Automatic annotation (TrEMBL):
Organism of this sequence: Chromobacterium phragmitis
Organism lineage string: Bacteria, Pseudomonadati, Pseudomonadota, Betaproteobacteria, Neisseriales
Keywords: Coiled coil, Transport
Bilayer-crossing regions: none
Domain of life assignment: Bacteria
Family according to the record: Belongs to the membrane fusion protein (MFP) (TC 8.A.1) family.
NCBIfam families xref list: PRK11578.1, RND_mfp
Protein name: Macrolide transporter subunit MacA
Family matches, as Pfam families: Beta-barrel_RND, BSH_RND, RND-MFP_C
Domain Multidrug resistance protein MdtA-like C-terminal permuted SH3: 296-355
Coiled-coil ranges (or none): 105-170
Length: 370
């Protein structure tokens, strides 16, 4: 029995000495097939495509507000009224002044007809030699003076008519109408407040058309040189992280904005909003698509080894038996985390992304480096 035990121990030792070493412990990732996108990420804010600050051009007390915040209005709809008494009194004064001018014109016209008849009589008498040059000259001067006075009065009537039209327009300013279809975002001036439109136009309310919204994305200085107008873009909002809203980049504004000592450029794109889910000042996570491939095989960037002269990369593949095999693969599009594999690998294969850290011995200490 002792001899048998020694022979078994010798056989086990020989097997361990002659056997192949175990495969190294490595970290692996699967070759995946799916959508691959090269993106520029940015944060953004939803803004109304068309927004108007509806103000007042007339002075007076805000007599009534016809809408509330959140109401949807149509173009030309009455939004508010300012007390019209002052404007109405000015209009009545302008009408009375114009009526007085009309009366003066009638008197002037009567005097002019009389002077014209007298001048005609003096002409006949002068031709007959029965009047003096002095009387004829006086009649001619009186006629010319009255004619010039009537022309001056006509100019005054036009001026008063213009004043009347201006007063009528200002009276119309007391009725504040919606300049477009939209939604009332905010009521700035409350009913009963006095508005004075002498130097600046006081804002009564803010109106916006939210059937289509604009997203203002803030693109970092390092990324802005990679983007251009016309690129496809999508975004998500906090309330619906799985729903993508698609658009096309409309413009990149030339002036940057400094945020926390970093420069950001504003990229604009428009998105339809028929159901009204997108609201002003919503925060968005924007993805600008530089390139996109559907059904692409891809591996993590950490799986790529050194590139050869032919442009192919060395990749280690772990087989079903645990053994490692090195292959040369051709790479297409790269993103910030993955690379497209054009040939050399198949979907489902395991590629090496790093070495498995050694497990500490039981009771041993683990050193963590900062």
């Amino acid at each position: 029995m002792a001899l048998l035990a020694m022979m078994a121990l010798a056989a086990w030792g020989a097997h361990r000495w002659l056997a192949e070493p175990p495969p190294p412990a490595v970290l692996t990732a699967k070759v995946e097939k799916g959508e691959l996108e090269d993106l520029v990420l940015a944060s953004g804010v939803v803004q109304a495509l068309r927004q108007v600050d509806v103000g007042a051009q007339a002075n007076g007390q805000l007599k009534s507000l016809k809408v509330e915040a959140g109401d949807k209005v149509k173009q030309g709809q009455l939004l508010a009224e300012i007390d019209p008494e002052d404007s109405l009194n000015d209009l009545r004064a302008a009408e009375a002044s114009l009526d007085a001018r009309f009366a003066q014109r009638e008197a002037k016209q009567a005097s002019l007809r009389q002077a014209e008849q007298e001048l005609a009589r003096q002409r006949r008498m002068r031709a007959e030699g029965s009047t003096s040059d002095k009387d004829w000259l006086a009649a001619d001067t009186a006629y010319r003076t009255l004619k010039a006075g009537l022309a001056e009065l006509q100019a005054q009537i036009r001026q008063d008519q213009s004043q009347l039209d201006s007063r009528r327009t200002k009276l119309g300013y007391t009725r504040i109408l919606a300049p477009m279809d939209g939604e009332v975002l905010e009521i700035v001036t409350q009913q009963g407040q006095t508005v004075i439109a002498t130097q600046t136009v006081p804002v009564i309310l803010k109106l916006a058309d939210l059937s289509k919204v604009t997203v203002r994305a803030y693109v970092a200085e390092a990324d802005v040189i990679r983007v251009k107008a016309g690129l496809p873009v999508y975004f998500t909002v906090l309330g619906a992280p799985d729903q993508r809203y698609w658009g096309k980049l409309r413009a990149i504004l030339p002036m940057p904005e400094k945020i926390n000592n970093a420069m950001f450029y504003k990229a604009l794109f428009d998105v339809p909003n028929p159901d009204g889910k997108l609201r002003v000042d919503m925060t968005t996570q924007v993805s600008i698509v530089l390139a996109r491939v559907d059904g692409a095989l891809s591996v993590p960037l950490s799986a790529l080894g050194a590139a050869g002269k032919d442009g192919r990369y060395a990749v280690k593949v772990k087989g079903k038996d645990g053994r490692l095999e090195e292959r040369q693969v051709r790479i297409g599009m790269k993103t910030s985390t993955r690379a497209q594999v054009l040939d050399g690998l198949k979907a489902g294969e395991q590629v090496v992304t790093g070495e498995q850290p050694d497990k500490p011995e039981e009771g041993g200490a683990v050193m963590v480096s900062a």
